[in-house]
């Protein structure tokens, strides 16, 4: 009889991908040519893009780590859902670099928010896979409901930010930031 595949390797691989993403993100930062604080401050779009993306990756990792507590078996469906989530995350350095280089131009900011849409949609897939079918003693109904509600709400807000980014990039960034704040605590409010 074959033993069930445990989720430890999935967790370790995912942690490695998150670590690489943060490393790639910082490699995109370039120091200014001049040796002044004014020159450093002139690069504020890069610093804002980097800072927000760093926090975004950290928050996604924390929530991913929290969510994987519910994994009892590394099923093929869970593995593929996780790979989809990691693929979406792998787009964060690209969208961050484009947004920073463009100095927060509308299309790159919209694309940045669209990457958040993809990340959040795949996270919703992980929620469905890990706790959607879990017995009540593993994931009580109130936890399932609140996790889905939060993920659906922020998914909608990221979609709005994607559209708003085409006309008002700073407002789109603010909307993305609001979504990040909602995920600061991996447990949904009231749990």
The helix tally amounts to 8
| Beta-strand fraction estimate | under 5%
Shape: globular
> End-to-end distance, in Å?
38 Å
Q: Please state the average pLDDT score.
A: 91
Order of helices and strands: HHHHHHHH
Number of strands: 0
Radius of gyration: 18 Å
Extract low-pLDDT stretches.
Answer: none
- Let me know the largest β-sheet: none
Helix content: over 70%
Domains counted in the coordinates: how many?
Answer: 1
Structural class: mainly alpha
Q: Could you explain how this protein is built, in words?
A:
By secondary structure, this protein is mainly α. The protein has one domain (about 10-180). About 70% of the residues lie in helices and about 0% in strands. It is built from eight helices and no strands. Helix 6 packs parallel to helix 8 (about 170-180). The mean pLDDT is about 90.
Features:
potassium transport, 191 residues, globular, mainly alpha, ion transport
Q: What's this, in brief?
A:
With 191 residues, the chain is mainly α. 72% of the residues lie in helices and 0% in strands. It has one domain.
Topology record:
Elements: H1 8-27, H2 37-41, H3 44-67, H4 76-90, H5 92-101, H6 106-131, H7 141-164, H8 169-182
Helix pairs in contact: 1-3, 1-4, 1-5, 3-5, 4-6, 5-6, 6-7, 6-8, 7-8
């Amino acid at each position: 009889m074959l033993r069930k595949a445990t989720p430890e390797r999935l967790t370790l691989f995912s942690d490695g991908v998150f670590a690489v993403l943060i490393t790639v993100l910082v490699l995109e930062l370039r120091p200014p040519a001049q040796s002044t604080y004014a020159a450093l401050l002139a690069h504020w779009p890069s610093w804002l893009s980097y800072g927000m993306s760093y926090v975004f990756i950290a928050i996604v990792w924390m929530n991913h780590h929290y969510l994987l507590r519910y994994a009892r078996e590394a099923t093929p469906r869970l593995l593929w859902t996780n790979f989809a989530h990691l693929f979406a995350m792998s787009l964060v350095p690209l969208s961050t670099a484009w947004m920073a280089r463009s100095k927060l131009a509308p299309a790159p900011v919209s694309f940045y928010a669209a990457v958040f849409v993809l990340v959040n949609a795949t996270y919703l897939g992980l929620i469905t896979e890990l706790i959607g079918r879990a017995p009540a003693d593993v994931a009580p109904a109130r936890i399932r409901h609140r996790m889905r509600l939060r993920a659906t709400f922020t998914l909608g807000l990221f979609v709005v930010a994607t559209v708003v980014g085409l006309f008002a990039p700073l407002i789109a960034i603010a909307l993305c930031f609001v979504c990040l704040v909602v995920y600061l605590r991996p447990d949904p409010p009231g749990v």
